[in-house]
Specification:
Number of strands of chain A: 0
Radius of gyration of chain A: 17 Å
Largest sheet of chain A: none
Order of helices and strands of chain A: HHH
Largest interface: A-B, 47 and 47 residues
Structural class of chain A: mainly alpha
Oligomer: homodimer
Distance between the termini of chain A: 52 Å
Shape of chain A: flat
Helix content of chain A: over 70%
């Protein structure tokens, strides 16, 4: 394969690997948040916090050349997984 | 707010910020791949490459404690955005 294409794909692969490791770490942390909320009897959702996250990520996306709507799609994806993991944890307990 | 919850959320925010910057960079690179493929008249999809990506990310997810199915969902999300961006680019040209 041409080395230019090979190099671009290698960069994509490195980024994807970094993303997977960061996602793994993110869900380790949300598991701790879930434990904390359970212990302190806090509600699972915090709408004010969610709005702040959306606004911050959209701003950062705009500044870095990413479609802000895509940043929200990323956030939706991880939030749906957080909900799935919390539900699975509750079902287990 | 309790400092433990505050700290956990700060880590989540840092990870999300890193994700957005990495996603921005990933789409900068896929734009270059798109240009390369157009110049060399290569087909947009490469099924063998896609299978390799899936297998590698699932393996890495398993090793790092992330649900391998979620790694695939991440990949689907970015691939759908790559297709959307390529289609938008073609419509513009």
């Amino acid at each position: 394969m041409n080395s230019e294409l090979h190099n671009l794909r290698k960069s994509i692969d490195n980024i994807d690997s970094a993303m997977v490791l960061l996602l793994a770490e993110r869900f380790r942390i949300t598991a701790q948040v879930g434990e904390y909320k359970k212990l302190h009897q806090l509600p699972p959702a915090d709408l004010s916090r969610e709005a702040d996250q959306e606004s911050h990520l959209k701003q950062l996306a705009s500044e870095s050349g990413l479609d802000p709507e895509f940043a929200l799609k990323y956030l939706e994806l991880v939030r749906s997984e957080v909900k799935r993991l919390h539900a699975a944890l509750q079902a287990k307990n």
